[in-house]
Write a structure and sequence with these properties.
Enzyme class: ligase
CATH topology of the largest domain: BirA Bifunctional Protein, domain 2
Pfam families: BPL_C, BPL_LplA_LipB
Low-confidence stretches: none
Protein name: biotin--[biotin carboxyl-carrier protein] ligase
Number of strands: 12
CATH superfamily of the largest domain: Bira Bifunctional Protein, Domain 2
Number of domains: 2
Keywords: Biotin, Ligase
Distance between the termini: 43 Å
Order of helices and strands: EHEEHEEEEHHEEEEE
Helix content: 25-40%
Largest sheet: 7 strands, mixed
Structural class: alpha+beta
Mean pLDDT: 92
Number of helices: 4
InterPro entries: aa-tRNA-synth_II/BPL/LPL (IPR045864), Biotin_CoA_COase_ligase (IPR004408), BPL_C (IPR003142), BPL_LPL_catalytic (IPR004143)
Length: 242
């Protein structure tokens, strides 16, 4: 299989947002496979416009990819991002930390959130021209999130250096991109399911607007939600375990 070009990793002490800088570089024509890391952020962003608290000591990074895939397949990259970060954390810490994925790409320890991921894409002619994947992981501190339990690797007794995590993350993204090319996401979905909340887990979408039980993943990475005898396809939304 044709190898990908090498990653370029840039490190900064402080940025407003690693994802904003990635998007700016993309608009300027930057090639893909760029990872930008900041020791802290002053305007970090979470899902749905939420602020992502970014004190020094945690991991803040954004990757720029140019996948060129149909926009309908973007959900697989959301799964890939979460699984890549989880595996990179375990590789960097040298242990199986018993972490779990919550659809599509939050990483949890028990019911507490450890890491989150935000994807921003530009679409051209129905294909994803650029994809910025923002990663935030609580290595040392667990900032408070209203209504959510949070934790950190330090609280779990684990220590991970941000630069080691960055290198491992690039390696795992490479692995799963090759896998996507090889079998259109079948291995990725199976591997994601092995690390996620179990089939049958009770879920609430968007604060309880929709509830049901986890019924697996669609081929495009969407969540399948069982509501009685009916299965609903969920392509976006905030998911909480009940």
């Amino acid at each position: 299989m044709t190898p990908f070009a090498p990653w370029r990793i840039e490190q900064f002490e402080t940025l407003a947002s690693t994802s904003d800088l990635c998007a700016e570089r993309a608009r300027a024509g930057e090639a893909d496979r760029l990872l930008i890391i900041a020791a802290s952020q002053t305007a970090g962003r979470g899902r749905a416009g939420r602020v992502w608290s970014s004190p020094p000591g945690n991991f803040y990074a954004s990757a720029l990819l140019r996948p060129g895939i149909p926009a309908a397949e973007g959900g697989l990259f959301a799964l890939m991002a979460g699984l890549s970060l989880l595996e990179a954390i375990e590789q960097s810490s040298g242990t199986d930390a018993a972490l779990r994925l919550k659809w599509p790409n939050d990483i949890t320890a028990g019911t507490a959130k450890l890491a989150g991921i935000l994807l921003d894409a530009t679409i051209e002619s129905g294909r994803i021209a650029t994809l910025t994947i923002g990663f935030g992981a609580n290595l040392v501190f667990a900032p408070e999130i209203p209504g959510r339990a949070t934790t950190s690797l330090a609280a779990l007794g684990l220590r991970v250096a941000p630069n080691h995590l960055a290198t491992a993350l690039c390696t795992r993204i490479d692995h799963w991109q090759h896998s996507l090319i090889a079998d259109a996401g079948a291995t990725l979905r199976a591997s994601w399911l092995r690390r996620a909340h179990p089939i049958g887990a009770a879920l609430a979408i968007d604060g309880g607007r929709i509830t049901g039980r986890f019924a697996g993943l669609a081929e495009d990475g969407s969540l399948l939600l069982a509501q009685g005898e009916q299965v609903t396809i969920i392509r976006s939304g905030d998911v909480a375990l009940l």
